[in-house]
Prior knowledge:
Distance between the termini: 81 Å
Structural class: alpha/beta
Number of strands: 7
Radius of gyration: 22 Å
Helix content: 40-55%
Low-confidence stretches: none
Strand content: 5-15%
Largest sheet: 7 strands, parallel
Shape: globular
Amino acid sequence: MTTNSTAVATLPLDGCDGRELSVRSFDPVPQLKVKSTPLTQAKFPVVNVHTHLFYRLRQNEQALDDFVSEMDRNNIAVCVSLDGKLGSQLDEHLKQLWKRHRDRFVVFANVDWQGDGAEDDPATWACQRPGFAERTAVQLRAAVEQGVSGLKIFKRFGLGYRNPDGSLIEIDDPRWDPIWAACGELGIPVIIHTSDPAAFFEPIDADNERWEELSRHPDWSFYGDGYPSRKQLLDARNRIIARHPQTQFIGAHMANNAEDLATLSQWLDEYPNLWVEPASRISELGRQPYTSRDFFIRYADRIMFGTDGPWPAQRLRYYWRFLESRDEYFPYSEKSPPPQGLWRIYGIHLPDEVLKKIYHENAARLIPGVRERVEKWQQPQP
Length: 382
């Protein structure tokens, strides 16, 4: 009896021969026969405002050259690298990107909150010392003189960085106001990643639509008393946007509210200095195609293109299909199973005048250094 029970308990959860199926193995093949538009490049020149070239290419020269070739094949004129941490990393990154490809890249700086402090001792961090924000503003001014085009704030701001007493640093802490003000004075935008998908703030249980993803990455969960609520984080970010109307803010990943475009619409109406981009969120946008299409057309002057790449070529093609085609029920990722939810997406078939704004015109208006690079890209090659 014991032997039989053990045998049943160890059977694979593969769904075969009447056995149960683990959600980790659930990877259905659709039987739909619908139109498929094989887009291999964007219809118009593109500025990708959200890439991570230092952390993902690791300063590899061949990888950079290969990436530029991929840009060429996809009609991507310019990429914004968001990995220019103030200090030696910024200098190193600018040197690598601009040695042979200056016309193809602009770089955003990052605040060095830790400085020479010990990683596990927030009391020693640079940001806890008096005058930190003012010193950072001076560093930003020097970075802009080097050619830097903006500032990137990562999601650990609000979810990871801590004060000496162990509390999380608050996004809207007035200590940081000189940083936001300096960006406005310098004419550079701030792209800020605040919070994360809604599912990451819910229990990892049977009701969580991204259970499969979170079961593989439980450290991505921010559920519980150890973190602020998602609403608290987003409200705090919005308060700094309101306090600094002369500074332009880009809400990364559709301001991390792609699941609720009605609320995002309210924010865009309330804060004229807020812009958004869809990096790693076509998975959410593409399963609400009617709402997304209406949103993209209504806010065509406030949306830019972003991917969170570098990604494989197939991932880029899904972005083109999402924005340009009327295709139905296609993947949003080349990975199987898909990484952000067990569903497929639909295209929103944007008009050409909207595509041009999202693909490059808005970025050229907002981000220093982009317009001249796009214009050069559009010139006939000898």
